[in-house]
Amino acid sequence: MSAIERIEITKPKSGTNTGTVIFLHGSGGTGQSVKEWIDMLRENETFSHLKILYPTASMRPYTPLKGEISNVWFDRLQISPNCTEHLESLNPMCEELKKLIDQEVKEGIPLNRIVIGGFSMGGTMALHLCYRFIPEVAGVFALSSFLNDDSVVYKDLKEKKNAKLPTLFYAHGDEDDLVNLDWGKKTFQDLESNGIQGQFHVIPHTFHELKKKEINLLFNWINEIIPDNTAD
Questions:
Q1: Where along the chain do its domains lie?
Q2: Cα–Cα distance between 38 and 141 in angstroms, integer?
Q3: What is the model's pTM?
Q4: Model confidence at 159, in pLDDT bands (50, 70, 90)?
Q5: Least packed by Cβ within 10 Å: which of 10, 29, 40, 219?
Q6: Rounded to whole angstroms, how far apart are CA atoms 87 and 131?
């Protein structure tokens, strides 16, 4: 069984795709649900030159739900910054998502015109994928996301000192009651201390959710790092 159940797609307005955005859903979500969320917040306004892929993780037992089956990118022992990462599920999923990126490259999209990120667990997945496996991508975004205190991402980054690494867009709600703001801030600061450059946005009056302001900031950032080159 594939680790990716299906993929929803938003095509570029111009009809000419010169780059790709991969948006990963949070735990228990789907590509369809997060696509509908983004479409609502953006009022169906999308990129003129970029395709957006919204993959759905296949269902697996999820420990925080007492082993219930759920659409999650990886398992974890508990929702806490101080527990050990479940690399037995994280690493194989990174390899599966890398295949999705390899397919985009085969279709003519260079790595430096691909951005990967997501909401909550989806953003965490993107941090592992890009900073450990494919640092050649243009950028990474993490919305209401996290890394554990002893994350292997930090250990891998220490071995990549002076390497060119993708820029990071990080946003977090100030009232997040699942992944609290301090956890998000510490994750960003720990990434910065390991050589990652980026921007951190605190979204006011926001729980564990996406808001229009943050998605507009994200889309503007993506347009800056993957500009429309169709007129060149």
A1: 4-225
A2: 15
A3: 0.95
A4: confident
A5: 40
A6: 15
